[in-house]
Structure formats: structure tokens, C-alpha cells
Amino acid sequence: MRTFILSLFICLGMASFAQTPLLFTKVIEKEGADSLKLFELARNWLAHSYTDSKAVVQDAEPGKRITGHGVINFRTGLQYISIRGNINYIVDIQFKNERLRFVMKNFTHEPEQEAMFNNHMGVMVDPLPKDLKEIGVEGANRKACYKYFYKKGKPLCEELFTKLSLDLERFIEKGEIIKNDW
What we know:
With 182 residues, the protein is an alpha+beta fold. The protein contains four helices and seven strands, in the order αββααβββββα. The protein has helices at residues 2-16, 35-49, 53-56, 140-174; strands spanning 20-21, 23-29, 57-61, 65-74, 85-96, 99-111, 125-126. The strands form two sheets. A five-stranded antiparallel beta sheet has the order 2-6-5-4-3. The protein has a two-stranded antiparallel ribbon with strand order 1-7. The radius of gyration is 20 Å and the shape is elongated. The termini are far apart.
């Protein structure tokens, strides 16, 4: 019984210090548009915004949700070349009548090459904890790399979210559904 209670306190203590993954959300409203029209507009926006929208979209429920993924190119200086690679993210667009919610989340690092140490920085959390051991980052190399990843990667993610959300909002405001008759 003591072991169970002790385990419970440890789990609760760890949960209270858990960091949350980086997440950006924006609600876009379009008066008079039902969820199916917003779905079509968002699908058209994806086709215009991404080189290969079919590769981006993972799941689509007409009138309810579009889920996909994207990639941010993460370049580094020579000192942090071991973590050069990509930041993968998930795009989630949910629809209701007259509004949609645009979410970008799960920003995960993927290095170009394996290094002599674990150079997978994992999911970007917000805020950056004082003790990186809380998120499983240990060792001098990994700590320095994760701090660099956070310092340079978070502004890249914010910048992309701002650009994409403003672009989506403008596209929805125009309200033009382009049929692809090819």
C-alpha cells in the first residue's frame, strides 16, 4: 500500500511539472458560410499554399476536419551542424458553421544525419524548462543543442504560423472555390 501511495505522489509530482508541446491556434470566422463551404475553401487553400497538397493532407472528413503535416527546413550554423534537419508539424483545421479553427502543433525535430550522440531533439515544448531533464534531455551536447533548437526553432514556427494563418484568413475572406476540372 505504501508503494502505491508513493508511486501516486511521484506521478502527480511529475505531471505538475510536465511541459506542454508548442501549439498555435487561430479561429477564423466567415459570416454566412456553412462548414462544407469552409471545408472546400480550406482544401483549396491547401492546394495553393503547399507544393503537393495531396502529400500534406493525411485525413479529411468533409465539413468536419482536415488533418495534415508539413515540414520546416531547420538550418544551423557550423557549431550546431549535428542538429541540422527539419521540423515536422501537424496542421489541423476544424470546421463549424461560420467559423473554422486553424491549429499547428507537434513541432518535432528530425536531423539530416545521425550523430555520435542522440541528436533527435524531439518535440518542442513551451516554455523551455529550466532543467531539461524534465523533458528527457541529458548530457552537455544534447542540452546545448536543445537550447539552440528552441531559440532558433520557435521563432521559425511562430513566423510560419503567422504567415499561414493570415494567408488562410485572406483566402477564406475572398471565398472563391476553384474547381479542378483537369
